[in-house]
């Protein structure tokens, strides 16, 4: 199916494998400039060899390590997309390892633990169930029937009842503790009392669903199978048994399990604290764009996204295009991660590089072979503080967020890495000659549909997307399996952390 057929079939979601025109012109031009400075050719076979799927750092397509790879036209040594992610993931491990008070695991009440990471294994504080329990509403019975029914029934949450004697039954509710000497629970629909008040087991109606293989016979004639519909103490776990390992994400289900297993608080790792610095004199925080001024798209977008990635956003500050102001904002920040937007390129008011240089910061990533977003950077500004510099173009900022901030924050938050996965891209996607492309896609059935409006300055594509496709240099054919990066709102597991 070609792009125009796809468009015809998918209406507004239609795909266009061509990039947005202003994007393409710049990218192609940059690629030519890069070639002139000795980078790899656009040979698709070599480009595919650099396909970043699979994760770990790898040599560039030209076989040279990043250190020996020639600098780009701007003098920087860009890393491949996979290398950059690995560096970001490992940067936090390379810290001193000393945990400040803020980083130490802390007990957190259950209702504040959603989205955090377990600092210690979740170990059952009790047997579950903690007593033998009725799995059904009906009668606790002792021995074969018929049974004499006791006057008092047994409800959930009540103290222990006197033992049953052989041939005795007591009305019981689901979840109630079965009286001692109970041999089975007879479901209410499987029993009937006669005129003398004696309880008889009645076989399930012929229309009843058939018994699963191996399941106990649900009452036949005058008796029921031993143990039927009793949940024995410790069936789910014994006290002291490990239910989840350290590092597990606290999801709603984990909160439920922890409560059931006796926890009031959970030992969790604190969220890394992120301060967002939005750079740009041209940005408005309200109203319509006018007189060359535009709305700040990143101030509203980044905080909830960062929270979804496991961070606590301590502040969002707007910083004038002034080197001294930026220097002060960064050096005064006590956050674990300072995240800047804009100012990463080499324009007259792009102060991020000179400021990092002035601070003596260590540049860990200085440019990435990814489109959009190639000027993104990662620096260590001081012991246990990092700076992620996102490019100002909004989709380029998203690219930097997922390429550098996500692995860094994931490691700092102690979260497990998401399992990489691929899906076929329904349509061909044009690749960059040398760089990985991140392209918004929607998931439809067993395929991912690349979206239009994927230019660096556009959010229209990603706002409608479920994921970003990692398009290797050289592009993808229709149906080609391609790595996808889930967007937090599309992956239920992380979505819970927007709260
Ligand atoms: N000579 C070169 N110029 C540029 C290059 C290059 O390689 N050589 N790269 C281009 C690419 S690619 C990108 S991406 C941008 C990165 O620029 P900066 O990080 O310095 O960002 P700014 O110049 O500050 O802004 C770029 C663009 O984005 C708009 N912007 C900035 N912040 C926001 C915001 N919060 N909300 C909405 N829009 C924002 C800003 O107005 C600019 O239009 O550099 C290229 N140039
Ligand atoms: O292509 Mo830039 O890298 O617009 O993000």
Automatic annotation (TrEMBL):
EC number(s) from the headed UniProt entry: 2.10.1.1
SUPFAM superfamilies, sorted: MoeA C-terminal domain-like, MoeA N-terminal region -like, Molybdenum cofactor biosynthesis proteins
Entry keywords, A to Z: Magnesium, Metal-binding, Molybdenum, Molybdenum cofactor biosynthesis, Transferase
Region (Disordered): 1-80, 158-235
Record domain MoaB/Mog: where: 275-411
Cofactor: Mg(2+)
Chain's role: Catalyzes the insertion of molybdate into adenylated molybdopterin with the concomitant release of AMP.
PANTHER family: GEPHYRIN, MOLYBDOPTERIN BIOSYNTHESIS PROTEIN
Protein name per the record: Molybdopterin molybdenumtransferase
Lineage, uppermost ranks: Bacteria, Bacillati, Actinomycetota, Actinomycetes, Kitasatosporales
